[in-house]
Amino acid sequence: MVGSDASAQSEVLFENPFHIEDLQIFDAETMRDMLACSHAQLSSRMLADSLHNVSSALIMRIMQGVPEAQRDQFQQELQQPLSSEEIDQARNQTLNTLFWELIYWKTPELYEELTVGERLHEGIFQSIQSDLKDKVVLDAGAGSGRASFEYLRYGATRVHAVEPSPGLLRLLRKKIIDRGLEQSMFPAAGRFNKLPLADQCVDTALSCSAFTALEDQGGEAGLLELRRVTRPGGKIIIVWPRTEDHQWFGEHGFQYVSLPVQEEMCVHFRSFDSAVRCARLFYAHNPAVLRYLQQTHKPEIPFSIIGMNPPRDYFWLAV
Ligand SMILES: C[S@@+](CC[C@H](N)C(=O)[O-])C[C@H]1O[C@@H](n2cnc3c(N)ncnc32)[C@H](O)[C@@H]1O
């Protein structure tokens, strides 16, 4: 069957660069959120199975994130006898599930290399300009600032850039200093469900390619927080939402805007080498991407080849 051939091939193509000990990078809050998320594929059973024969430092670290009520059961799962194949399988699943979080926390430079190429449709900022110009805004899940700097460019007076990954925050802080923007952009560590901001202190709360319906990436608690920090009459704007969350945003009263495109949108990498490196790492599940690069020898890939909705849409909600 074509489908199973394709998935077997992608299994072979994808090599997760992370090791189970890399999970030590996460702080307790992040680990707790990831384990508490009922929709997440990371179950405490899968995690426990992948932690056989790891360092005691890692076990202690993970334990800090396991909710009190689940600790006894987690301990028992850690003691279950497992074959080395079962442990390897659980590790692969865990590392694949946490792939993006590990990228943000462990290899932020690689994520930066990708986002430099994934340019957001200019029409998004033109269309929301009245919610940016002379406004105080929040960029939640700001990463290394791809959207945050655009908000300033479109006239925001202050941008509060909140991001949980220390590595991405470091890159963001460096850019702020390099560009002399210390008086207008304020980076801070934080998560959607506990934003480090006072009630009603921003005119517009934005999140670009970060807020989702999943509880560990926003969800109901995250939306309540975005509402809390936005002043009445302000807006919440979710840029480049996941396609699978469209219904959730609609059910929560958001309006959808998709900008027209003249010609197909592409990811534009710094160089051909960078395109190949990123394709091997980020799009390895999709062999068509590497094939496309080998055929064209250009440092760009259409979003349609990647199989992704291009960054040209947003949801908005009046508060
Ligand atoms: C796809 S990146 C987008 C980053 C940035 N907004 C951009 O457009 O480049 C998703 C970001 O959301 C952050 N993130 C993940 N979970 C989060 C949470 N619970 N609260 C806040 N940010 C979160 C990640 O650390 C990462 O920086």
Automatic annotation (TrEMBL):
Pfam families the record matches: Methyltransf_25
GO molecular function: methyltransferase activity
Highest taxon of the lineage: Bacteria
Entries under SUPFAM superfamilies matching the protein: S-adenosyl-L-methionine-dependent methyltransferases (SSF53335)
Domain Methyltransferase: 137-234
UniProt protein name: Methyltransferase domain-containing protein
Taxonomic path: Bacteria, Bacillati, Chloroflexota, Ktedonobacteria, Ktedonobacterales
